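Subject: sequence -> structure tokens, single chain

Hey, anyone have a minute? Need the predicted structure for the following. Not urgent.
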Amino acid sequence: MNTTVLSIEAPGHVTLVEEKLSDLPEGGFIVATTHSGVSAGTELTYVKGTNPYLGATWDPALGLFMDGAPSIAYPVRGIGYMQVGRVVETRTRAVREGSLVAMCYGHRTAYVGDPMRDRFVELPGDLDPVLGIYVAHMGPICANGLLHAAHDLHGPAVRHLGDGVRGRRVAVVGAGVVGLLTACFTISGGAAEVVVVDETPARLAVARALGANTLAADDDPAVALKRRWRHGANDRGADLVFQCRGQTRALALGLKLLRPQGTLVDLAFYTQGAHDVRLGEEFHHNGLTVRCAQIGRVPRGLAHAWDRERLSHETISLLREHGGPLREHVVTDLVGFADAPGLLADLAGRRRQTLQAVLCDHVEDEGG
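Reply:
Had a minute. Here:
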């Protein structure tokens, strides 16, 4: 049995290759991919050649990028972390045949899973399988942002994901998938108000459809928000900012939105320099805090109670609450797997715009 795998042969060169699927071992299972979500951020850094792993050695013990052989070299195969698959054969009691599972195994049409090696989340029957792409990894990325905000207020005493946003005025910079899901989590967490800031009118319209208020990034949102959000004399602005766009000008804007001694939780991935971030201005004079919420770890002291499984459970709860609008407004493109190379090349070359593209075999069955 073969599997078709997305392969980035070199910057700008994306293709599909056939690989032989390994034999199914005792204790393993095979999934046939039904949906595979495309990350227009991380994945395109490999298509563009800007990912830091392509130019340096990552030392996990030191937590440093070092000179030396790149940690990842072309061809880069099987990237992607938003897969949904149907279990077509199983030799384990961990998952039954016919189950729909969310996993992270890259853009490929089939995969041999091992419960001792691979993380999988069985999807409930009432969840739209297209939205299942968010359950294993993307949803937990955003939920972890809220967890960092809760830890910022309560330390290890966090009990609920919304502990850091409940009753607070929150700004979300960036209306891509990460920003929109984070805004939904924040609304569900009981924030007093959520304002999404972005440069694209169409994406702001999606944010409004999901229940957030919006401001255009080119309309001086810092002045607008600080005039509107007053805490006291000389104390205006957002209690909390989630920065969800991989542009340093977005980080600079996020710092401007904060009230004095406010916190910015950064979920973005920057691959260029940070000349737009002027640390001698708002960051210094308002005594601000920047916290990086990277999915590789949860805040200190919370790992036992808030593991990836719990963050996936929180994601399923969110999708049940907001699934209709998310499916209607965020999933913008359903693309046949055979067309994946052209899609990624067009996205990297800015010849095509999409919010959330999903690869699937039977586009016509999905209404595409």
